[in-house]
Every structure is written in C-alpha cells, then in structure tokens.
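Dear support,

I submitted the protein below through the web form. The confirmation email said the job was done, but the results page showed an empty box. After a refresh the structure appeared. I'm attaching both so you can tell me whether what I see now is the final result or a partial one.
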Amino acid sequence: MASALNAGTKYWNVGMKMDNALDSISSKFLKWVQPIPIQRPLPINEKELSAIESLAQRHNLLMLLYVQLKKYYNQNSKNIDLHNYLEERKIAFLTNAAHSMRQKEIEKKILSLLKKEQIPAIVIKGNEIAMEIYNDPDCRTSVDIDILIKMSHARRADTILTKAGYSRIDENPIGFWFSRLHHAQYVHPQKDDIIEVHWAFGIPNFFRLTSEKIWDEVIYTDSGQYKLSPDMMLVQLLIHHQRHAFRELKILIDILWTMWRYESEIDWSAFSEKLGDIGLVKTTQITLKQIRSLWTESSEEMQCLQKLDNEMNKMRCKAPGFLHSYFKMDIETGNLFNTTKDLIFFRLVLDRRSAILFSFLKTILPFPHAIKELYEDKRNWRLPLNYLRFIRWRLGEWRN
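What the results page shows now:
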C-alpha cells in the first residue's frame, strides 16, 4: 500500500513538474509577443527557444516572435543560444519579408486600379496592421490581401477586377452576398494570391455598423492615402475576433497591440459608448477576459485595459459565464475552430436577442432581394419556388 502511494506521489510530482515547465514556456512565449517591452534580462536557452518556436508556429506568429527576439537581443547581446537562433532563422524571415513586399505591390496595383475609377479603397489587416500597429512591415504573415471599399461601389469594383483578370472564387451574383457576407474573394491572375474585397467588417445585421458609418471614420492622410481611425481599427479587430469564434491568438495579439499603440489617442469612455451602439459589448467583455487570463501581470500595466473593462462592467448587457468558459483560450491545445458548435455559439455573443434569433433565421431564409439576385429572377410570384430551391440547396450543403 505504501509503495503504491509512493509511486502515485512520484508520478504526481513528475506531472506537476511537466505542467510547470509547460507553463513556463507558455509564459515566456506570451511575454515575447506582447507589446510591453521586457525591461530586465529574461533567461532563455536553446531547448526553451525550440518549444517557444513550436507555439509560435502553431499560432502563425513566427515572424512576430523573430522581430521581438531580435529587439531584445539588440538590447541584451550576451545570450549565445539566442544569437544562434536568430542567425538560423534569418533566411526564413527574409523569405517572409519578400512575400510581404510582393503582397504590397499587388495592393498598390489594386488600389491604383480602383482609384482610376474614382473608387476609394483602403488596405486593412495584413501589411497595414504590421506597419501601423507593430511599426514593422515584416513582422506579420498574411494569407490573403484585404481591401475595404464602400458597399455602393462593390458591383462596379467587381466588374473592374474581373476585366483586369481577377477571378471571383464563387459564381453567385455579388448582390446576393450584400446581406449575407462582408466580402467577395478573388484570385490574382498570375500569383494565385487571394484578394478579399470588403464592404463591411463582419456578417451583415450582426452589428449596427453600416458601410457608411465605417467610412465616416476613415482618415485621409497627408500622403494622399486612406486609413481607418484608431477607434475603427479596434472595432474591426473585435468583429474579426468574434467572426473567428475568439479562437485565434494572432487576432487577440493584434487587439492587445492596437490598444497599447492607441492608449493615449482613444477616448475610452466615448469608445465604450460606440461599442454599445454597434452591439459589441459581449464581444469586448469576452476579449478582455481572454487578455487578462493570458497576460495577467502585463494587463495591469495598461491603463486602457482597466478603463475599458470598467466601462464594460457598467453596461446592462453581460456575457454569461458559460460563454466566457466556452471561449476560454488555451494556447497549448490551440482551440481549433469547431465548425458546428462555434457557428452556433459565436451568434450567442451578439448583444441583442433579436439579432441572435435573426442570425439563425437568415441562414436558411435570406432577404427576398438576395433570392432574386441569386436566381436572377425579379418576379415576386416566383419567390416561393426560389425559396424552396434555396432551402433544398442549403440543407444538402449541411448534410454534406
């Protein structure tokens, strides 16, 4: 009996040591990728660097990790393991930098193409966030290129891009998507890059944020370019985080860096009112809890986090405990997007009950004008038949 207890204690201690080691790696990784500079030397060896790299790779944060480690090494250049790691990863970083430069050239061509036709456009996410928020154009990888235009220009932009050789991924009329999606996807004629042309940040009718309201907060810079205001940049990221079911650490880090970058520029009380008007209270509450749970110490150093948290606690709308629990972020397991569950639960984060109910109904019953666009049939008497066609297609899609 005693030997069995000793054996159990031994394995429990080993398990505790493994958990503590894992916590240490996660803790160091999160410190490296946060915006608050590390003031004192943080010991790190070759084995830890390898484990941290695995975490960064899992969350698509390798380039940010490289840039952050390089900054730290420039200040504390005594760690040989860190020096060797940076040297070995330099080629990978430069390869990504070349990819970013190629994407920038594509962005310029698309913006120029739209500008010739008097269509204002902005690059959002990707390289724009890397430069604006992180002050480093190469610290962030992006699979696609995101362009924002006004919804009223979307049909014309579709025609322009199609004539220029860009092919849309789906064959449905673009008007069908105006009440169902927030973007159209195109493929570059030579490079196979995916270009997403947005007219909104998230699924229409989830939030009270029209294309016109977004463009009311677009800034025209001295260099003759358009960019989102600090408020609207953060709103975009919060909606993006909700759209990905609060699963992506990369988006959460974008939000953390944005808050840190604009801490003194945003009026957090007025911004909270804006979040309430848009319908982003629950989304913000869940996001802030994720940040506090991952960066417990660092979050206390950012006054804006506390200010925003206090303002959110004043709101009548509250995210229930089961949603906080469901969307708790575990950076070790990755919390991969669960298509079935997450598509249900991320709707429950909407502030208004009517929006939650409507989000489910419109999945299978689109607006009449969307059905007319889809089947290119404007006749009202054909609507019931076309609705049946759509429901049949939708159910078949779900079965598959």
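Response: this is the final, complete result; the empty box was a page-load delay. Residues 1-22 have pLDDT under 50 and may be disordered.
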